[in-house]
Design brief:
alpha+beta, Triger factor/SurA peptide-binding fold, Chitinase A, domain 3, 2 domains, four-stranded antiparallel β-sheet, 15 helices, 47% helix, extended
Amino acid sequence: MFGWRAATCLLLVATLSGCGGSADSWPWAQRGVPITRPTTSDANAVADAVPVPEANQPAFVRPAPLFPAVPPGPAAPITKPTDLVDLLTVPRAASTTAVAAVTEPPAAGGTVATQPVAAAAAEPPEPAGEPKMLGPREVVAASVLQVNQRFLTVDDILRRVAPRIIAIPKDLGEDAFRQRVGPLVAEEIHSQVTRALVLGEAEKKLTDEQKKQIDVEVQKRQREMVAEAGGSKTALKVSLQKRGTTLEDVMTDVRQREVSTAYLRGRFLPAIIISRQMLWDHYRAHRRDYETDKRVQMQIIAAPFRGFWPAGTDRPSQAEQAAAKQAARAHIGRAAAALAGGESFGAVAKRLSKGIKADAGGVWPLMPAGSFREAAVEQAAFALAEGQTAGPVETDSGYYIVKALRVRPGRIVPFEEAQEDIADKLRDEQYRKLTDEYYHDLLAAATIVHSERFIQFAIDQAVRRFWKR
């Protein structure tokens, strides 16, 4: 009926099966490529390229890690959890379908739970003609997912995904709404499972000093949020409540992100190696990325026909349009005469232009060809040398006088100027690769206990809370 079953299968299969990676395959200390100068043929392959800098060029500075770099350790043993009914108080909820209940997870020692837990014994049936009510164990089983020694609830999922669900059009039918919600819920489950696994590792490494640093960042973010809400903490809470969350929940999310980010950066940034040969190879392979097009900063005096329509008229008659065109021609003529008389372009633009940049003296930012709506005006500007003026230029919308205030010719960014940008890109690529592989290995070693009804229960609750709200 919709994609939640497929999304669940993809999540669990991708998470728990076929994940045989081990610490031995980790690229912890990638060997650097020997730094050599490009050959003559290499240099000729890139016009105007600058040879690789000498060894005395300043080295790239890596940010100081919050956490020390540590090799991956074995997965923490999973102990038997307390019965979930004892841990959580979940109100009884109406449903027409029984769900599986959580039983004991697999024994510790690396075994991964790849199937839903067994179904609980059915409660006594409700009287005929009345809707079936889930028992406490069944509701808990459907609304909780265990990741190692952490628990994710349906409320956790819906709270974080609520803004995206609220943005779904309200005029959809229920089935269409479910189809839109399903992928969002599945994506959020995957994200939170990964986050829970990383947090489990990160929190083992936190020192008191690191906790203090994280507290500072969290408090800073809260002050920024209050400022963005107009300086009122109460207004911020009301705004968050409308989005289906609370300030406390948001700050919990902020803290978790800070902990995870600091841990991952401290673990993997020291493992990243960027050599000059890698920079040079990337520069040669992506030369077009380091070519800039010609750009012109235009200064415009505009007399659009619309500016001379009768006041309050959106659909002028043909006679009114003809009169407006004549008035615009006369107006631009007065502007041209003022320029010829020695008045500065900016002063005339502020006094006579009816364009949107009149208050700024008619000045537009530097733009490449194809950026300005009036093609004839842009074409005239790109044909000018810096400081020259053209016009009046007539278009379908009005008359214009244009000046090429500044001209920046196209150029190839030299290798020596591009190195920092390239290093950032390569560092990001390596960081993503290392963290993706780390997530993969965490999922492979994790014990995840779930009900096959978890995602369905989440979608049902989303319909109750958000559909036609």
